Amino acid sequence: MLSGPGNVIGRMTRGDPLQRQNFLFTSESVSEGHPDKVCDRISDAIVDTYLAADPVSRVAVETLTTTNRIVLAGEVRGPDSISHQTLEDAARRVVREIGYEQDGFHWKNAEVCVHVHNQSSDIAQGVDASGNKDEGAGDQGIMFGYACRETDALMPAPIHFSHKILNEMARARHAGRAPGLGPDSKSQVTLAYENGKPVCATSVVVSTQHGEDLDQRQVREIVRPFVEAALPAGWMCPEDEFYVNPTGKFVIGGPDGDAGLTGRKIIVDTYGGAAPHGGGAFSGKDPTKVDRSAAYAARYVAKNIVAAGMADKCTIQLSYAIGVSKPLSVYVDLHDTSDIAADRIEGVIAEVMDLSPRGIREHLQLSRPIYERSAAYGHFGREPDAEGGFSWERLDLVDALKSAMT
Question: Is 37 a residue of the active site?
């Protein structure tokens, strides 16, 4: 009965709660000043530092933050000109740009400990191209990509609006238009779906760090315009379901209030729980690590499939083995939103894009210093920029997909 990959996938996903037509669904986001996001951005700043100096650098660096302390650990292969002092300077710059000048976490006064060493030769020999061997994946693992028609960005609506609230609050804070707000904040948006489509918010939660001189009511009124502007007209939740700083006070924030660590916000980074996530985080990793590059490629292909009108919703899974250049598997789920068989699209994907680690890196031009900007407000659903950032959000595969289907 299960005669092909498309049929298998269809059977596996029919129990998905998001296949229901009427339901509530919630996603959260965290700001650039959240302790974990501070760590993600520092780690990605280090990736960019190495790639700017040498595009074939190898980087896997984690960051830990707590009260006035930043710890960097990991392995790298790159120019000797990049010293521990270079990495410390990058960490301090990131903290300064986010806006931390608190007694308990200050870009200038925090202790920075650097424990970064050379990449293992055992890993290097599996990843590097040599002789007749092509560049292999930097690790084993599974990666997912997803796209849907809920927003113009082809992203699930709850995570899209959660990011938008915090992103606009951060822009206003940096521009001096939100006096009293601090860098650390979180949002959570619950949307009602009717006939499978989002129609309104039923509750919104925003917790934001603030100055001692502001009370909960004042913070609520500062935050309100950002929420109302982020949501479509008429979508604002009922007043008694609008929660701002539910604990009543949020003065101590950032790593002084809670320790941070690279890679702990993977659902925030991707689809807010509306789609699967693979086993790995993104930040701190160069593009030979398929945890990152293959997840970007899967989103790129899924987004282009939806943009091409081949489906209204698409999930793609890729899998890899360390040191092996080809993906071990590619499967597609169209969530019963297409007349095209999933296994046919799986074949078309292989025709239009090389999904080897080298193929992904070259197609999306990932060996550039483009990662620090992705560390907060989601890796997906963003606008491609002139410097090559968010290249996986381009729609330049649409024509090739349509042509391959004819």
Answer: yes
